[in-house]
TrEMBL record:
Gene3D superfamilies: MFS general substrate transporter like domains. PANTHER family: MAJOR FACILITATOR SUPERFAMILY (MFS) PROFILE DOMAIN-CONTAINING PROTEIN, PERMEASE-RELATED. Residues 61-472 form the Major facilitator superfamily (MFS) profile domain. Its main location: membrane. The keyword Membrane applies. This is MFS transporter.
Length: 507
C-alpha cells in the first residue's frame, strides 16, 4: 500500500526509544501520551493491521465528515436558491440588501472564531461539531418566518456563528486521525461534497421549486427541508463520531495502538486540553500563519460566487429552472478536481503549493473568459463559469498545509482562528463588489476575482520559498547536532513545530 510506504511503514516499525530532552510530560501533553506511556514500548506496527485500521477510519469517520460538509454547503446555498424563487420580493430586498445578507453570515462566523478556538481547546472537536450542526439546523428553519431585511440579517448572523466551528473542527479531526501524507486526499474527499451539494442542491432546489402549498412560498421550502435534515444529522454525529482513537468502539486494543502510531510521524498529536499562552503567541508571530491568512482571504473573495452564482447564470439569459440545472456542472468540476489534484499532491512529494499555483491559474482563465467574452457567447461564458469552480481545490490544499505544518494544539487552534478570520474577511468583502447597477456583467466583482488570483500566484511562490528555507535551516542544524537523542514519545508532547527539532515542513 503506497500510502503506508509514504509514512515509513514497509513491513513493521516500532517507536524509537530515546533519552531525556527535558520537555513537558503527560500532564501538559497530548491525550495519547498517557496511553502510550502505559503501553508496551516494543510495540510493532504491522502493515496488514495498519491497512485494516485505515480502512476502518475511512469507513467510520470520513463518511460522517462528508455528509456534514454536504449539509453545510447546502445550507449556505439556500439563500442563493431562494433568491430566484421569490425571497427578494417577499422580504422587500432592494439595492445592496442581498449582498449584505451574504456578508453578514461571515461577520457572525468571524466573531465566533475565538470562541470556537477556546471551545475546541477544552472540549472534543467531534462533540462541538454535533452541537454546531443542531443549532444551524434550528436557525436555518427560522428563516421561514422572516419577512424583512432586518429579520433576515439577524438569522444570517446567527447562522454564521453556528457554522463557525465546522471548518476548524474538520481540520483538527482530519489531522488527528490521518498521517500528513494522507491528509490532502481525505480533505479533498470531504470538501468535494461541496461539489456534491452544488449538484444535488440544484436538483433539490429544482424539486422544491415545484412545491405549491397554500400560504407557503416556494423559497421557504429551500430552508425547511435542509433544516430538518441538519437537525436529524446532528443526532447521528453525536452518537457515531468518536472523540479520538482512544474512544473509538470499532478498534480493539491492538488496532487502537496502531491508529496512534500511524500519526506519530505527524509530530502534531491528537488533542491537547491545556491552553498554552506561549503557543498562542508563537502562532500570532509565525509567518506561516500570515501566509495562510492572506491566501485564505484572497481565495474567498471569489467565493461570493456561491451566493451570486444563480444570478450570474440567469444574467447570461437563462430562466429560473434552467439556471438551477446549469449550476450543476460546476459541482462536477469541483468533485473531479477535489479527487484528482489532492491525489497528485500525495503522489508527488512536496508539490502542494505547486498544485495550488496550477489550480489558481485555471480559475484565472475561467474568470478572464467571463470578463472578456461578449454576452452573446453563452457557451463560452458558461465554460468560464464552470472553470472557476476548480478554485475550492486550492482552498483544501491550503487547509492541508495548515494541518500538516502547524503543531501544538493551542498553536493549531489559534492559527485556525486567524486563518478563518481571513476566510471571513474575504467572504465579507466579496459580495460588496457585486453592484446591482452593474448587471448583467458585474465588472467590478469579476475584476476583483482577477486581482485576487494574481496576488495568490505571487504569494504561493513566496510561501514555498519561505518553507523551503526553513527546512534547509533545520536540516543543517540536525547535521550539526547528530549526537542528540530525543525523549521517548516526543511526537505527543504537544510541542509546536518550532519547538520540535524533528519537525519538517510540507511544501
Amino acid at each position: 500500500m503506497e500510502e503506508l510506504t509514504a509514512i515509513g511503514i514497509d513491513a513493521a516499525t516500532n517507536p524509537e526509544s530515546t533519552t531525556e530532552l527535558g520537555v513537558s510530560k503527560a500532564v501538559h501533553g497530548d491525550i495519547a501520551l498517557n496511553f502510550l506511556e502505559t503501553s508496551p514500548e516494543d510495540f510493532v506496527v504491522e502493515k496488514e493491521v495498519a491497512k485494516r485500521v485505515l480502512r476502518k477510519i475511512d469507513l467510520r469517520i470520513l463518511p460522517l465528515l462528508c455528509v456534514t460538509l454536504f449539509l453545510q454547503f447546502l445550507d449556505k446555498s439556500t439563500l442563493s436558491y431562494a433568491s430566484i424563487f421569490g425571497i427578494i420580493e417577499d422580504a422587500h430586498l432592494v439595492g445592496t440588501d442581498y449582498s449584505w445578507l451574504s456578508s453578514i453570515f461571515y461577520f457572525g462566523y468571524m466573531i465566533s472564531q475565538p470562541i470556537s478556538a477556546y471551545t475546541m481547546q477544552h472540549f472534543s472537536p467531534a462533540k462541538c461539531l454535533s452541537f454546531s450542526v443542531f443549532w444551524w439546523g434550528v436557525i436555518l428553519f427560522m428563516h421561514v418566518v422572516c419577512d424583512s431585511f432586518a429579520k433576515l440579517m439577524a438569522v444570517r448572523f446567527f447562522l454564521g456563528m453556528a457554522e463557525a466551528i465546522v471548518t476548524p473542527a474538520f481540520l483538527l479531526i482530519t489531522s488527528g486521525w490521518y498521517p500528513r501524507s494522507m491528509q490532502p486526499l481525505r480533505m479533498g474527499a470531504w470538501y468535494a461534497f461541496n461539489g456534491v451539494a452544488i449538484m444535488f442542491g440544484g436538483l433539490i432546489a429544482y424539486g422544491l421549486g415545484h412545491i405549491h402549498v397554500d400560504n407557503i412560498s416556494p423559497w421557504k421550502w429551500m430552508f425547511i427541508v435542509p433544516a430538518g435534515m441538519s437537525i436529524l444529522w446532528s443526532i447521528v454525529l453525536f452518537f457515531c463520531l468518536p472523540t479520538s482513537q482512544l474512544t473509538a468502539s470499532f478498534f480493539n486494543d491492538h488496532e487502537r495502538r496502531t491508529a496512534i502510531e500511524l500519526i506519530r510521524s505527524n509530530n502534531t498529536g491528537i488533542h491537547g486540553k491545556t491552553f498554552k499562552k506561549e503557543q498562542a503567541k508563537e502562532a500570532l508571530l509565525d509567518p506561516i500563519t500570515w501566509f495562510l491568512f492572506f491566501l485564505n482571504l484572497l481565495i474567498n473573495v471569489p467565493n461570493s460566487i456561491s451566493s451570486f452564482g444563480s444570478l450570474i447564470i440567469s444574467n447570461f439569459g437563462f430562466g429560473s429552472l434552467e439556471t438551477t440545472l446549469l449550476s450543476m456542472p460546476g459541482g462536477a468540476v469541483e468533485i473531479l478536481t477535489m479527487t484528482l489534484i489532492p491525489l497528485l499532491s500525495m503522489k508527488v512529494h512536496n508539490s502542494r503549493l505547486w498544485c495550488t499555483f496550477g489550480v489558481v491559474l485555471v480559475a484565472l482563465l475561467g474568470t478572464a473568459l467571463i470578463f472578456a467574452l461578449p454576452y452573446g457567447d453563452k457557451g463560452g461564458l458558461l465554460a468560464g463559469y464552470w472553470l472557476i469552480f476548480i478554485f475550492p481545490t486550492a482552498g483544501i490544499l491550503l487547509y492541508s498545509m495548515l494541518g500538516a505544518n502547524v503543531a501544538g494544539h493551542t498553536k493549531k487552534v489559534t492559527t485556525n482562528a486567524v486563518v478563518l478570520i481571513g476566510y471571513c474577511v474575504g467572504n465579507i468583502i466579496g459580495p460588496q463588489f457585486f453592484k446591482s447597477e452593474q448587471k448583467p456583467r458585474y465588472r467590478l466583482a469579476i475584476g476583483s476575482f482577477l486581482v485576487c488570483w494574481c496576488l495568490m500566484l505571487v504569494l504561493c511562490l513566496l510561501f514555498r520559498f519561505y518553507l523551503r528555507r526553513q527546512n534547509k535551516r533545520r536540516e543543517a542544524h540536525q547535521e550539526a547536532t547528530t549526537e542528540i537523542e530525543y525523549e521517548s514519545n516526543i511526537e505527543f508532547h504537544d510541542l509546536t513545530d518550532r519547538q520540535n527539532p524533528k519537525f519538517v515542513y510540507i511544501l
